[in-house]
Write a sequence for this structure.
C-alpha cells in the first residue's frame, strides 16, 4: 500500500515537472521570438537617440545664450535701479532748492518808503524757483520710468533663467546615464534578456528531463 502511494505520488511529481518544464520552454521560445522580432525596432530607438547629438549641442548653445541674456538683464536691472535711486535723490534736492528760491523771492518782496527795490530780483528768483521745480518734476518722472524699466529687466532675467533651466532638463533627459547613450543601453538590456531566457530555458529543460526519468523509474 505504501509503495503504491509512493509510486502514485512520484508519477504526479513527474507529470508536474514535465508540464511545468514544457510550459516554461514554450514561454521561453515565444519570448525569444518576440525579442528577436522587436530587435530592429529597439535598434532604431537606440539609433535615433544616439543621433540626438546635434540637437543636444543646439540646446546647450541656446541654454548658454539664455544664461548670458539673463545675466545681462540682471546687470541692467541693477544699473537702472541705482540710476533710479540717484534720480530720486536729485529730484528731492531740486525740490528743496526750488522751495529755498521761492522763500528767498518772498523775502525780497519788501517795501521801503513805499517802493520795492528788490522786486526785479524777486521776480527772477520766482522764475528760477519755478524752473527748478519743473526740473524736479521731470527728473522724478524719469526716475519712475527708469524704475519700470528696471522691473521689466528683472522679469526678463527671471524668465530667461527659467527657460535656460528647462532647456537643461530636456538636454539631461536626452543624455541618459553619464557616458552611455540609449543605444548601448538597449544592447545591454537585450543581452540581459537573452541571458535570462537562456537560464529559464535550461531550468525548464531540466524539469522535463527529471520528470521523464522519475516517470520511467515508476513504470
Amino acid at each position: 500500500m505504501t509503495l503504491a502511494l509512493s509510486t502514485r505520488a512520484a508519477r504526479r511529481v513527474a507529470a508536474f515537472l514535465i508540464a511545468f518544464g514544457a510550459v516554461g520552454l514554450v514561454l521561453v521560445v515565444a519570448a525569444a521570438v518576440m525579442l528577436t522580432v522587436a530587435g530592429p525596432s529597439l535598434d532604431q530607438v537606440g539609433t535615433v537617440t544616439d543621433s540626438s547629438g546635434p540637437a543636444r549641442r543646439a540646446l546647450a548653445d541656446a541654454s548658454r545664450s539664455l544664461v548670458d541674456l539673463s545675466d545681462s538683464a540682471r546687470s541692467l536691472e541693477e544699473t537702472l535701479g541705482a540710476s533710479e535711486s540717484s534720480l530720486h535723490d536729485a529730484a528731492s534736492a531740486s525740490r528743496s532748492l526750488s522751495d529755498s528760491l521761492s522763500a528767498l523771492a518772498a523775502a525780497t518782496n519788501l517795501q521801503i518808503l513805499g517802493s520795492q527795490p528788490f522786486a526785479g530780483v524777486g521776480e527772477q528768483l520766482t522764475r528760477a524757483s519755478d524752473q527748478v521745480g519743473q526740473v524736479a518734476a521731470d527728473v522724478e518722472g524719469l526716475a519712475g520710468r527708469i524704475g519700470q524699466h528696471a522691473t521689466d529687466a528683472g522679469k526678463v532675467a527671471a524668465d530667461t533663467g527659467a527657460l535656460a533651466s528647462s532647456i537643461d532638463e530636456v538636454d539631461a533627459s536626452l543624455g541618459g546615464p553619464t557616458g552611455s547613450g540609449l543605444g548601448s543601453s538597449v544592447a545591454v538590456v537585450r543581452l540581459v534578456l537573452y541571458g535570462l531566457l537562456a537560464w529559464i530555458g535550461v531550468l525548464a529543460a531540466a524539469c522535463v528531463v527529471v520528470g521523464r526519468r522519475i516517470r520511467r523509474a515508476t513504470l
